[in-house]
Amino acid sequence: MSKRLANNIAISVLWVAAASTVFVLAWLLAYVVVKGLPALSWSFVTQWPTGVTASGGIFPTIVATVYVTAVGFVLVIPVAIGAAVYLAEYAASGRFVNVIRFAADSLASVPSIVFGLFGLAFFVYALGFKFSMLSGGLALSLMMLPLVMRTTEEAIRAVPQGYRLGSYGLGGSKWQTVRRVVLPAAAPRIATGIILAMGRAAGETAVVMFTAGMAINAPIFLTDPGRTMTSHLYVLAMEGISVKNAFGTALLLVGMILSFNLFARWMAGRRG
Amino acid sequence: MNGDTFKINVEHLDFHYGDFFALEDISVGIRQYATTAFIGPSGCGKSTFLRCLNRMNDLIPETKVEGKITLDGNDIYAPDVDTASLRRRVGMIFQAPNPFPMSIYDNVAYGPRIHGTTNKAQLDEIVEKSLTRAALWKEVSGKLNTSGLALSGGQQQRLCIARVIAVDPEVLLMDEPCSAIDPTSIQKIEDLMDELKSKYTIVIVTHNMQQAARVSDWTAFFLAEHADRPAKLIEYDKTDTMFTNPSDKRTEDYITGRFG
User: Fold this and answer.
1) How far apart are CA A178 and CA A160, in angstroms?
2) What's the complex ipTM?
């Protein structure tokens, strides 16, 4: 085999490998769209499920998904940003910093069902929050913590040193510099990381099944339980209740998360 | 030196970066309402020395300062000195213009705000006065709400000067302020320095000897004679004397372009 032929074969094989990524996404999306589109309608979004085949809509599960994700978002922000600011601006590199980083990386690799189990044992039973938006949001915030923390830390480190020197040179304290110059400059990147984490949280199943509960309910208070879209999808499909509505739910969920990701990309492109 | 009162007085300063001995036994008096230039080949420690004067080197880990620096007779390295108040009195202009990513107005108002001025009318007045003094008001008065980053490099550097003037400092430290900007802007900044010295004490680090000759009243020449030896102050005199009749052979060689 000539060198040239070997080269062309190698390029072709690599190209196919690369193209298959796009193909898998396109295939999956097309499958979900084709199977899910017949179920979609305005009433699917606005009405409650009815009857043994769960016909009708999935309105309460949309409310629960948005609610529990929002709670997770509100809870994770102060802790994740606080930890990231500490790591990037205050902590001298050393043992403690390495321990925090290792903890964050380990937390990121914990299987989500373990977060669910922990949430069930700790928030639902031990703290007595029962199956609720609060329990679900708390468990989701734990899952989002390492992700938001690391992206925020990177965003803060990417802020040019000249901004900090400018502030110190004017007699700014460390905290004034961080709050008034560094964080605003890092804000678009931080927001991008948060939005991506919210997309992950909205698509999470195991965590919320164990903590927000499975009750079909449009939650109003933090103490209310609620079945999320992902949990609903699981029940519809695994118990053979309605494969058509399962795909309808999946399509809506994928659409929501995809728009989160596109929004995050748009935010990232806007910086600078 | 001939009985003048010095705004800043440095006595027997040694400076270390970790194991590296950077500056040795520097003694120099900086005169009030005059411009003092620090010249020397790159790597001779002139910028490092400048950053000792407002303790910016404190931000770099593992640096060590020995000797004494006084501002109006008070030791700036004394344990009870607050570096934030020191840096407010001894402002700094950096080599690369570094406006904050916020509006022109907010850039200038930043200093007064962090030092507690919140009154809008008062801030408006400070912003206008500082931009006027930095010879930038005419160019930006109509667009104070646009980003400081949208200005040209030369305008950005004048914005940084306005930002420092807004906190009403006594000394301006300028670390090669013209090295990253265009010739027309350099001219404007040099004219500006000439006006500012009636009110401030200016210290400028420059690698451009013509610039030192044009803008300064006093010149200090720094040199590290071997790469692994600390830099020393070779000669310090009136700028006119330094450039026409230097007393040290090494100063003469540097000024006439024989090295550096």
Assistant:
1) 12
2) 0.90
